[in-house]
Amino acid sequence: MAFHCGVLRWLAENKQIEDVVHVSTVSGGSLFTGLMFKLSDWQWPSSEQFLLSHHPQIRKILTEKDLLISAIKRLLLPKNWRFLLSRANVISQTIEHCWGISAQLSNLPEMPVWSVNGTTAETGRRFRFKRSGCGDYELGYAEAYRFKVADAMATSAAFPIGIGPFVIKTEDLVWYRRESWDSPPNRIKEVKLPFDRLHIYDGGVYDNLGIEPLFDMGTQKLKDGVDRIIVSDAGASLKRGPLGWALNPFRAKRVADIALDQTRALRVRSFINFIKTNPSSGKYLQLGTEALSQIEKFRAQNDGVCQKLLTESWLDGNDVQIAAGYPTTLCRLTAQEFDRLERHGYETARWNELLFTPML
Asked: Which phi and psi (to 5°) does residue 276 adopt?
């Protein structure tokens, strides 16, 4: 969230927040976006509003409120024991209690469109919440008015093992699906799902970048209506280290982490290849990428801009690595931790824009 906050600060300084027409999020990006909407009374903020109001409020919230401790306390309440294995439902309660996010998805504005992405355990497909509905393309879709924004935020961040899934009782909703894959949108029929319950995990399990609604990875093309994508990737890279002793219970988690890292790598490669041939159509902003080394790398191609950038102050390699190594957690950040991560996001957006835009 802190990294994304820095990226948005750069966009706001350049009056680009008003240009956003679609936000697609997973994990911390969903928590960040939901908080953004709440702070502007369920409208998308202006650049000035973000700089003067949202940015300092987000810093205050993330450095003063601890979602993890609050969630643990709520899980200990007898009424929540039924959620012991589906703790994302308790995370939703915690978001509502700590951050005051009690609005329904129907309270979201029509623009920009917000796709809150999860992963359906039963089908392995991308489950998404939007203002207009929820579901995945294999199961079908239902109206989402009964869900709170906090539900979607918690679902999108429901990492396996650590948090567990968000559970939806399918009989509580009316589900619809197209008659066939290539049927027009108006040719839909009511369907009964083959599952009594759906277990929805973090959207990052399926698509770590959250770009599927906007970018076709197979054809490496933007989808209809999309002119430019900025990918803010705050996911940590896979750590190197020994596997451990043979009966180590964390071996299974290590294998899962490798699989997720490879899924992410495939999407990154596809998107990077796209922006290499279409440089005006996208930016990829990655946590852990040091400014100075990248500026030096492209010096031969754009010496004038690089010379200027090299005279400026940037986070050094040690600070970048500390930022990149910060664990994905619901714990409260210290002011120093927030400022380092936020500055890293801001600088990453800034040097990418200044270094590559003149080359168009």
From this structure: -65, -35
